[in-house]
Amino acid sequence: MTRINELLKNNKAGTYQGSINVGNDTELPFIHIIGNKPGPRLLITAGVHGSEFCSIEAALRLKNLDSAHLSGSVFVLPILNVNGFYQRSIFVFPEDNKNLNRVFPGKEQGSKSERLAFWLTQNVFPSFDAYIDLHGGDLVESLSPFTLFPRNNAKAQALAKTFGLPHAVSTDGHGYTLDAAEQVGLPGIIAEVSGNGLWAENTVEQLTLGIYRVLNFLNITQSDVPVLDTNKIAVVDLWIPKAPATGLWYPFFTLEEEVRHGDILGEIRAVSGEILETITSDFDGRVLYYLTSLSVTVGDALIGIAHH
Ligand SMILES: [Zn+2]
């Protein structure tokens, strides 16, 4: 078991794997690929949400990068929520029932997810030049591939466009990996591919290709990946209405469908069938995400509408 400082000081070319001590008896798996030549350092995390398996599999496959052809290094933390991964928990850490991607920049003396957020913000983010946080639809979410980047961050927007998923979403939320990274000067993106926790060769490949494009863009590699017209990638905002009631969720639209301002996006009904709430769209746009579970709890994210 290694500590982060020793690990990041290493500059001997090669591929290293093991577990890293993040304090309080917590250890995380890591993969560190150090190139033959110096260059930028890319950080990649996955498994912030332990059941987004496609992102975790894509992160694990990065051990196949050849250090002999790297200028710089790639540091991968493939499963941040280890117990959530094995227990297949949705969104949260089983230890404290909190969503890691809402508690950044974390707390030194906080609960499990808050301490991990603090450790990442303090000890990991400042050592890197670029950051990709891999996600996907959790067990109850269907989604169409997109990236997220902090609004008005030109470096992060360039990474999002380079990654190559069809929509790049500009965000200004707080508590996320991305904005904590931005606070310490690290440009980062979130990449979202696949839904309902599913993973398959083609969806893992979509993430892998995006990562390889970013590696080329940063001149860490010069690999042979298809060139993309980044002008075709739509930069959008994502509007996500939250459930105003607990009940049963009936969405009326599916992925990629166009919606108009005022359209009924879905209903929340009681067990009796009585309509409790009607969700209407505030925008003209396109469905990038929706909650697939029949059960819904007040405050849940119901549907994501990409709009300009
Ligand atoms: Zn996620």
List keywords for this structure.
308 residues; alpha/beta; Aminopeptidase; OB fold (Dihydrolipoamide Acetyltransferase, E2P); 2 domains; 13-stranded mixed sheet; four-stranded antiparallel sheet; 17 strands; 22% helix; globular; binds zinc ion
Number of domains: 2
User: What is the CATH topology descriptor of the largest domain?
Assistant: Aminopeptidase
Summed up, the helix count is 7
Number of strands: 17
Q: Beta-strand level of the residues, as a percent range? A: 25-35%
Low-pLDDT runs of 5+ residues are none
Shape: globular
Q: Which ligands accompany this protein?
A: zinc ion
Task: Determine the N-to-C terminus distance.
Answer: 47 Å
CATH architecture assignment of the largest domain? 3-Layer(aba) Sandwich
Radius of gyration: 19 Å
The helix/strand order is HEEEHEHHEEEHEHEHEEEEEEEE
Can you say what the CATH homologous superfamily of the largest domain is?
A: Zn peptidases
Describe the biggest sheet?
A: 13 strands, mixed
CATH class of the largest domain: Alpha Beta
Sequence-ordered SSE layout with sheet pairings:
Blueprint: H1 4-9, E1 14-21, E2 27-34, E3 37-45, H2 53-60, E4 71-77, H3 82-87, H4 112-124, E5 130-135, E6 141-143, E7 146-150, H5 154-163, E8 167-171, H6 177-183, E9 188-192, H7 201-217, E10 234-239, E11 247-251, E12 258-259, E13 264-269, E14 275-280, E15 285-291, E16 295-296, E17 303-307
Parallel strand pairs: 3-4, 3-5, 5-9, 7-8, 8-10
Antiparallel strand pairs: 1-2, 2-4, 6-15, 7-9, 10-17, 11-13, 11-16, 12-15, 13-14, 15-17
